[in-house]
Specification:
heterodimer, A: about 180 residues, alpha+beta, two-stranded antiparallel ribbon, B: Monooxygenase, 21-stranded mixed sheet, 23 strands, about 30% helix
């Protein structure tokens, strides 16, 4: 399993591989308990978590909670997600379950962070807006808010990030 | 003069010997005691289904009425055991159907149970009464229908956290009108809606019903009508607690709860809306067990609820309770014996930061009967562990899960060695321990030195070298189950302490540094153990020096198992592999 270079850090230095000092791990495939998420192309350098390991390590079976319990919790009636906005000094948290659709969510975000956002259209996203709302889904991918039906979004959204300025433009032109 | 007691007298005496530990001792005294004991044993526990064959068990205990079996290793709960590993109930059910048709009770944990198994049970055991399946999988609701329709004297049907193929709620309607013996019904892990009218009729004709655990699909409204039919319930698991009811319906529901005079245990409460929590206030003073681990109740509401639960002995809750909520528990729930706090988020980032080590410290300081703890937390300190150890020397089970691997004491940045030392030194009757956080070999030296009564130990992301394993295997005299993942030891300690493994039920090691060669050597040296190498990468030739993914070693009288999948290897698959060419140090 080759480790990708993310944000110029060689992940081998921070990997959770445990062997006796001086021993060479014969086969790299044997690190099956560490599964790396390597889909972070949208991360910019002023991501507020640049001081912590950039790619979240998803360890199989950790924390040791029965999957039965994990699955049940995914259906709970509050769904707090962190919301970050580029340039804002601290993050906020909102409960996705309090909104019924994208319009309500975006309005709430506009109020919370004092920005305005343009119309969403399938072909061009939020073209013309000063900001672009994105979210991290269950697989660790960063997605544009609005592409999928609301229910699918609200059950798979883990956190939100309002991208602005040049990053937003870069995203738009990439689409 | 023949000094032996006649067997009839022995039988009578043994009928007062209940615990299986005592019965096992009794059976070792002499041949005639062995014989009489085995003929009179009614309840048989087989804690590793591969340790002994079904035929041997049936042969030894012809009077068996109740059989309890456990299959997969504990770490299967955390997806560390690949699907298809084993733990099949079928051979046992088939054997008992033939040799012990008077079997009345079957309790299975972490086993693969198919619809075929359930149909066989329904068809073979005429007086079948109790079926309890915990963390089992492999069956569908059709199998449940088979049980429902055929078991005329059924008293208990409990599905605890099973993975069931849910083909609909019809299965419940198969209970015949003539079935009136039900004492306990738990279908909380199923998804589909059952027909309410059938459930109501079942409840009405079950005067002995003491325990009812509904699934999430049962609405709040339906709960009301069911409780009206069963005010005698001692254990209740509600369904979803979130329908919008009008004022009249709410007050009727409140009234119904006040009628539950016998209620001691409450669980379920999925999606509970804060405005409905006061409905529970009337039952709180009587509760000894409360499971809120699926209920996303926030701290202030938890405080209101728990401050009314003065008789609570067992509390399962999520970390939404925060330190403040645990302080309320500390001051109100003086009878508390068992506390489990589960994480509400999926990982470290989502851990509730308002719950720290202080919460557990408060409860430890204030609840004199606290003896069992499971605590998930973002961080911990040695000082907190020392306080817990000092105030609660009566702890029997202490499982701490610091969610971030390798997390040190967050105040001193030291490993948590000293904290766990305090725990094992002070808690002399500690039987079960799970450690976490940053730990060096020293921690395990302490555990080996002081953990003399320790029977089960779980370790992850800890230690520095082989010494850690050596300390445990050579020091912990009572060690029965050891499970380790992601720790950096190799072959030496394991091979040096191989004999210890025959005194234990099982050893699980995954993502450690044990080599294939060592596994082969163990297999050769210790024929009474099954050394299973579980490696999903099954190369044609495996170098002896390569570390294996997972190893599961257990003592057994049954020899190699015949149902191993491709990814499980024991030496019996390649008996021609000798170890003479290995350098044995």
């Amino acid at each position: 399993m080759a480790y990708e270079k993310v944000n110029e850090l060689n992940l081998k230095d921070t990997e959770l591989r445990l062997g006796l000092p001086g021993t060479e791990q014969v086969k790299e495939e044997q690190d099956v308990s560490c599964v790396r998420s390597n889909k972070r192309q949208l991360q910019s350098d002023n991501e507020e978590e640049s001081t912590t390991p950039p790619a979240k390590t998803q360890i199989v079976g950790w924390p040791p909670v029965r999957s039965y319990r994990k699955n049940s919790n995914n259906n709970n009636s509050v769904s707090y997600v962190k919301v970050s906005m580029d340039g804002a000094p601290y993050l906020r948290k909102i409960d996705l379950k309090t909104y019924k659709n994208y319009a309500e969510l975006l309005k709430a975000l506009e109020n919370m962070f004092k920005f305005t956002i343009g119309e969403y259209c399938e072909r061009e996203g939020y073209k013309g807006s000063e900001v672009v709302p994105t979210y991290e889904d269950k697989d660790g991918d960063w997605m544009l808010v609005g592409d999928v039906p609301w229910d699918m979004f609200s059950s798979s959204c883990k956190r939100l990030r309002i991208m602005k300025g040049s990053d937003a433009l870069a995203l738009d032109s990439a689409l | 003069m023949d000094l032996r007691l006649p067997s009839k007298v022995l039988e009578h005496i043994f009928s007062f010997v209940d615990s299986n530990e005592d019965r096992n001792s009794v059976s070792l005294v002499c041949k005639s005691w062995f014989e009489t004991e085995r003929l009179t044993r009614k309840r048989v526990f087989v804690r590793n289904c591969y340790a002994v064959t079904p035929a041997a068990v049936a042969r030894r205990f012809p009077g068996m009425r109740s059989l309890t079996l456990k299959g997969k290793p504990h770490f299967a709960d955390y997806n560390l055991v690949p699907d298809g590993w084993g733990g099949y109930a079928w051979p046992w059910i088939e054997a008992m159907a033939e040799k012990s048709p008077s079997l009345e009770e079957l309790r299975l944990k972490r086993m693969v149970v198919t619809d075929e198994c359930l149909e066989k049970i329904a068809a073979s055991f005429k007086d079948f009464k109790v079926l309890v399946l915990t963390s089992c999988e492999g069956f569908s609701t059709d199998g449940l229908a088979a049980i429902a329709v055929a078991c005329r004297n059924l008293t208990e049907l409990e599905l605890r956290e099973c993975i069931v193929e849910d083909l609909g709620g019809d299965w419940l309607s198969y209970f015949p009108e003539t079935l009136t013996s039900l004492v306990s019904l738990d279908f909380s892990c199923l998804d589909s809606e059952v027909k309410l009218s059938d459930l109501e009729r079942l409840v009405s004709r079950s005067p002995n019903l003491k325990s009812l655990k509904l699934n999430r699909a049962v609405s709040l409204d339906a709960l009301g009508s069911l409780l009206r039919l069963a005010p005698q319930l001692v254990e209740l698991g509600t369904g979803s607690f979130s329908d919008k009811l009008d004022q009249e319906a709410v007050s009727k529901l409140a009234q119904v709860f006040t009628e539950l005079k016998e209620l001691k245990s409450l669980s379920g409460l999925w999606d509970v809306l804060p405005e409905y929590i006061p409905l529970l206030y009337s039952v709180c003073p009587g509760l000894t067990s409360l499971n809120l681990s699926y209920a996303t109740v926030q701290m202030p509401d938890l405080v209101e609820l728990l401050s009314r639960c003065s008789n609570l002995q067992k509390l399962w809750v999520m970390d939404l309770i925060e330190d403040k909520g645990l302080e309320a528990v500390a001051s109100s729930c003086k009878e508390l014996r068992e506390l489990r706090v589960f994480p509400s988020g999926a990982d470290v980032d989502e851990t509730n930061v308002a719950m720290t080590e202080q919460g557990l410290v408060s409860v430890s300081e204030a609840c004199p009967n606290l003896e069992s703890v499971l605590y998930f937390c973002a961080q911990f300190t040695n000082a907190a562990l020392a306080t817990i150890a000092k105030t609660r020397p009566n702890l029997k089970c202490f499982r701490l899960c610091v969610i971030e691997p390798f997390a040190p004491d967050h105040k001193t940045h030291q490993p948590l060695d000293e904290g766990f030392k305090a725990i094992v030194e002070s808690c002399k009757d500690l039987q079960r321990l799970s450690v976490s956080g940053l730990l060096t070999d020293k921690a395990f030296e302490y555990i080996g030195t002081h953990g003399k009564k320790l029977r089960m130990l779980s370790i992850a992301f800890a230690g520095d070298s082989d010494l850690m394993l050596h300390h445990l295997l050579s020091g912990c005299e009572s060690l029965n189950k050891l499970e380790i993942r992601d720790c950096p030891f190799g072959d030496t300690a394991l091979l040096e302490n191989a004999a210890k493994l025959e005194t234990m039920r099982s050893l699980w090691m995954s993502s450690c540094g044990v080599s294939f060669g060592a596994c082969k050597l163990m297999s050769e040296k210790m024929p009474k153990l099954n050394v299973e190498v579980i490696d999903e990468h099954t190369p044609e030739t495996r170098p002896d020096s390569s570390a294996v993914e997972k190893i599961y070693i257990y003592r057994t009288l049954a020899g190699p198992r015949l149902d191993m999948p491709e990814f499980v290897w024991t030496i019996h698959k390649n008996p021609e592999i000798g170890v003479s060419h290995l350098a044995i140090e």
